[in-house]
Write a structure and sequence with these properties.
The chain is of the alpha+beta class and 307 residues long. It has helices at residues 98-114, 122-126, 128-135, 142-148, 152-166, 181-192, 201-217, 236-253, 263-273, 279-291, and strands spanning 2-3, 12-14, 17-19, 21-33, 37-43, 48-54, 70-80, 83-93, 221-223, 231-233, 261-262, 296-299, 302-304.
């Protein structure tokens, strides 16, 4: 399995298929409790991988897992500073260890399926152009693209990756990235290309501020609502999970005759939870969920999921 390319950093190739989400079944061989998250190392007989779970997403009745527990993990593949890992959306403790064996057999069957050439389902073929238009990135001016291929966007991406790994999904000060020696060296190298003299501290600070401003414009980072003068990283997975939770909540409370949840209601709830998100950002995430098969339109401007 390999990264698709530099543009889609969270998509991977498995034979002829593109994947993002995984299901793992194995034994916990390592547990590390941190302030922001719990890091479980899971061995599924093919190797070990880190599966991290954010503390703030744990339910009140969550039972801590321990070494030797057999678990089933659902999540998104990521490549972090220490290698490949799983951003866990759900982890279940399995009482029957035979489920691990059954999962291993299932992976062998699925592997043979994934080796077959990928073909689009007929329903997607019929709507291929519409889907491509909705999922295609917004066009950017040519001069911005050329700059992003050199150093400015590379530095911005490095700052964003650092914030994702170190801000602990809590509000952070604007000075946090400037404490990282690797980012400082990268900033000096970029500035040195543009001038003969050694970059000043003010120039370095300005480059960091430009990167953060750009991240805010891209709505990857937003100003904290609770703490003035601080910022927070917007996590795509957290927003998608919140959308799913809204739909599940309404469907659970409503009659089985209810076709779906009005898009306007979902928008209102999401904007209340994530005030800085724009309507087009939420629509994009909903279409991502639809493309992945988690939700689908049950009517005009209505969304539902399989029950």
């Amino acid at each position: 399995m390999s990264n698709l390319n530099n543009l889609f950093k969270e998509l991977y190739h498995l034979h002829d298929h593109i994947i993002k989400l995984v299901e793992i079944c194995g034994v916990i061989v390592g547990v590390e409790h941190r302030y922001s998250h719990i890091n479980y190392t899971v061995d599924d007989n093919s190797g070990t991988i880190a599966c991290y779970l954010w503390q703030k997403e744990l339910l009140d009745d969550h039972t801590p897992l321990k070494l030797g527990d057999t678990v089933r993990v659902y999540g998104r593949i990521e490549t972090g500073p220490e290698g490949r890992r799983v951003a866990t959306s759900e982890i279940l403790n399995l009482e029957d260890p035979n489920e691990e064996l059954a999962h291993s057999v299932q992976t062998l069957v699925l592997d043979s399926e994934y080796k077959k050439p990928y073909e689009l389902p007929e329903i997607i073929k019929d709507n291929k152009e519409m889907l491509l238009n909705k999922l295609s990135p917004r066009p950017q001016p040519q001069d911005v693209q050329e700059e992003s291929e050199t150093d400015t966007d590379l530095f911005k991406n490095a700052v964003f990756q650092f914030l994702r790994d170190n801000s602990m999904h809590a509000p952070f000060m604007i000075s946090l990235p400037r404490r990282n020696a690797g980012l400082i060296d990268m900033a000096k190298e970029i500035l040195s290309k543009e001038q003969e003299n050694e970059p000043s501290n003010r120039q370095i600070t300005h480059l960091f501020e430009e990167a953060l401003t750009s991240l805010c414009e891209d709505r990857l980072v937003v100003e904290s609502i609770d703490k003035l003068g601080m910022f927070e990283v917007v996590d795509e997975m957290a927003v998608e999970k919140f959308i799913l939770r809204i739909i599940e909540e309404i469907l659970r409370r409503s009659s089985t005759r209810v076709g779906g949840v009005r898009e306007e209601y979902i928008m209102t709830r999401v904007k209340k939870e994530f005030p800085k998100l724009e309507t087009e950002d939420i629509e994009k995430l909903m279409h991502h969920l639809s493309a992945k098969g988690f939700i689908f339109e049950s009517g005009e401007k209505e969304w539902t999921k399989l029950r």
